Amino acid sequence: KRVHESFKNIKESAGAMDGWSPKELSLLSLATCDVIAAMLNQIEQGEPWPRSTMHARVGFLENEGAQVGKVTSYRPLTITSPVYRGWATRRLEDMKEWVDTWALEEMYAGIPGKGAVDAWRLALTTIEEHKLDKNEFAGAVADIMKFFDQIRRKLIYRMAEAAGMPRNVLMAYKAYIENMKVYNCLAGGMGTPYVRRCGIPQGRPFSMMLVALNMRPWIILMRCIPGVQVFILGDDVRMLATGK
């Protein structure tokens, strides 16, 4: 029933290389979802993911306002299997209580119930108060280039394990990411498959949560500086300093 509910609520998006689209999964019967649930339970116990789900295509989206033609002007978007996406979305909801044990108020991405709009509202309200009170302040913004593509996965796994992420979920996630074969799709063509040396798929259910966990030590370090307030929006970091 939980798998069926997860597929019903899955967002409509691009189909994957296994031939399935998220919309098609929402049409599956309860009996079919029962078989899929049994398969996912086996995967969480150490069995491999089905071979058809392990292939992902990578599209390249041009960043708004970026210089045309440069490699760094494009953002790779990985389209994974809808079955994996449905599983990850369900498990991320299940782990809300665990996320609450380490989440910090400075995190505005990867944390349930909070988003970039909340960070903007708080930052702009604070700035407005400083202007009215004539307080000195300064701000900074850092957009970490290709952040998701540069992440060291071994570090992420160790941090998640140390933070208490459920072992069966972490094991299944690691098995998928480490064995996923990706195909670069450009100008109507498709490249040969390869396994990424580093990085995690951008925009996938676990990605933002793991990035927030990865930034936690830095947030705690910044708390030691009086008058400094930080906002974490995934690979977008914002700072607001008050006083001289």
How big is the Rg?
20 Å
Sequence of secondary-structure elements:
HHHEEHHHEHHHEEHEE
Low-pLDDT segments, ≥5 res: none
Number of H- or I-type helical stretches? 10
CA-based shape: globular
Number of strands: 7
Q: Tell me, rounded to a whole number, the average pLDDT.
A: 87
What distance separates the N and C termini? 57 Å
The oligomeric state is single chain
Strand content of the residues, in percent? 15-25%
- From the helix content, strand content and strand pairing, which structural class follows? alpha+beta
In helices, the fraction of residues equals 40-55%
Largest sheet: 4 strands, mixed
Within the largest sheet, what's the order of strands? 2-1-4-5
Describe this entry's structure for a reader.
It is a single chain. It is globular, with a radius of gyration of 20 Å. Helix content is 45%, strand content 17%. It contains ten helices and seven strands. With 244 residues, the protein is of the alpha+beta class. It has helices spanning 2-9, 22-25, 30-44, 82-94, 96-102, 116-133, 147-150, 153-163, 167-179, 205-222, and strands spanning 55-62, 74-79, 137-143, 181-186, 189-190, 228-233, 236-242. The mean pLDDT is 87. 27% of the residues are buried. The strands form two sheets. Strands 2-1-4-5 form a four-stranded mixed sheet, with no helix packed on it. It has a three-stranded antiparallel sheet with strand order 3-7-6.
